[in-house]
Amino acid sequence: MGQKIKLSILDQSPVRAGGTASQAIKETIELARLADRLGYTRYWVSEHHNITSLAGSTPEVLIAHLAGETKHIRLGSGGIMLPNHSSLKVAENFRMLETLFPGRIDLGLGRAPGGDRITSSLLNPSNTFSEQDFIQQIVDLQGFLTDSPDPASVQAHIRAIPIADTVPHLWMLTSSGHSGLVAAHFGMALSFAQFINPVGGPQAVKAYRESFHPSDQFAQPYATVGIFVLCADTEEKARELQAVMDWRFLSIEKGIRSGLSTYDEVKNIQYTQAELSRIQFNRARMIAGTPEQVKQQIEQLAVDYQIDEIVAATITYDFADRIRSYELLAEAFELTPYAEKAECFSS
């Protein structure tokens, strides 16, 4: 800590109730352009399968388009669910991205299926869901990306094409902390998903730092935390946005995968005591309020984790509310637009 807090974005390309996937992807493109102009550090897109309320299933394809629509911001996966794929194909996909957009690509990896196990087994029929196989995939992936596989392995006779001059930054995603130790072993950066699990994050990041082995990419441990952020001009508006997310979390926990509802559709719902307890728990997965309130909470989160970068995920029914939230967040933290950065550099 001690440096100015950097802000990044995780976009799951949410589909609202009554909306379409095409609409969601168009909004992702518009939001990436905005983030690029406002001075956000990185823009990550996710991998989900068999979930109709989320349109992001192929981050490697979406990243290519978003990178072409932006000029400065880093683009990446939050993340590639590695067991769903072969290490060689992931290496080739991201080598191509790095060849097209050198120095702007992050390869965030995850172990979760990004959906249900049946779908995951169809994506990769050889997937055994074992820890050992996951570790071996990381070893193979690093070898392919750096042209330095184990000389005794079959990978030594195979090159990931195209040969690239640079390597995408490797990140590990975790919501439990276990993968943080894997990231530490391989010298990768780490992003803890508090938007999934609000418990144990600071401890997981601390353990990652203490176990970190330097790599060619990262001489020192580097960590971020991802959290849902709902920033609005007024407290009343922020409470409305939060109420919609309260219902969304409960719906997902009940197996309901419909698109995001409006505030009018959820405002009169009467919750049971058990549901109210879950709402209280889930609110630790998000930060909501006016710009000043949100800034204070994010600054405290950064202190708790001892980090300098927050990854904000914002889901709202109206896209205008989502845009406004990111605009207010950028203003609150006085992000420097890239055009101004370029002017300062040239002068």
UniProtKB/TrEMBL annotation:
InterPro entries: Bact_Lucif_Oxidored, CmoO-like, Luciferase-like_dom, Luciferase-like_sf
Annotated GO MF terms: oxidoreductase activity, acting on paired donors, with incorporation or reduction of molecular oxygen
Domain (Luciferase-like) ranges: 6-301
Cellular component terms (Gene Ontology): cytosol
Family annotation (Pfam families): Bac_luciferase (PF00296)
Source domain of life: Bacteria
Keywords: Oxidoreductase
Keyword Heme: no
Family: To bacterial alkanal monooxygenase alpha and beta chains.
UniProt protein name: Luciferase-like monooxygenase
Originating organism: Xanthocytophaga flava
Lineage, uppermost ranks: Bacteria, Pseudomonadati, Bacteroidota, Cytophagia, Cytophagales
